Amino acid sequence: MVRARSASGASSKEVPLNWNKWVRQIYRWLSLAFTVAVIVNIVAVAQKKYTDRLGLLAVLPLVFLLLTSLYLFVLPYATEWRSGRPTD
Ligand code: HEM
Q1: Can you tell me which atom of ligand 1 is nearest the CA of 76?
Q2: N or C: which terminus of the chain has fewer CB atoms within 10 Å of its end residue's CB?
Q3: Domain containing residue 36
Q4: Atom 36 in ligand 1: which residue has the minimum CA distance?
Q5: Nearest C-alpha to atom 1 of ligand 1 is from which residue?
Q6: Nearest ligand 1 atom to alpha carbon 65
Q7: How far is the CA of 39 from the centre of ligand 1 (A)?
């Protein structure tokens, strides 16, 4: 467990750290689901069996991938903001 020192107590930092871990884990599984969906789509197109539903199968994980990736993108900056630099 990573404990960071902060004025408001160590435990206040544990919740965000856990969130980061979970979002990253969900992101990894989504990227795997997306990869599988893309392969399924390519196979379907090659066999001329493509349907709109197969397209959605890839687009849905991609949408969630984008949402979670925005969180991951902002993380380093959020850590910087919380690192105790004066805000004004
Ligand atoms: C929707 C567009 C996407 C955006 C905006 C995006 C953005 C990001 C960002 C910001 C990170 C975090 C980098 C860091 O650690 O600071 C990341 C990591 C990663 N991305 Fe994406 N990504 C996208 C699509 C994808 C796709 C399509 C895949 C693969 C199918 C993918 C696979 C990964 C993996 C495996 C990581 C490393 C995750 C980890 O740290 O465990 N990403 N991406």
Answers
A1: 16
A2: C
A3: 15-77
A4: 28
A5: 66
A6: 1
A7: 18
Ligand 1 contacts CB of residue 21 (under 6 A): no
pLDDT, tens digit, for every residue of 32-80?
999 999 999 999 999 999 999 999 999 999 999 999 999 999 999 988 8
Whether residue 28 is contained in a domain is answered as yes
3 domain-assigned: no
The answer to whether residue 86 is domain-embedded is no
Is 82 within the bounds of a domain? no
Q: Look up the pTM and report it.
A: 0.81
| Number of compact structural domains in the chain | 1
Dist. CA 42–CA 8, nearest whole Å: 52
Q: Residue 27: is its pLDDT beyond 80?
A: yes
Helices vs strands, H then E, count in the chain:
2, 0
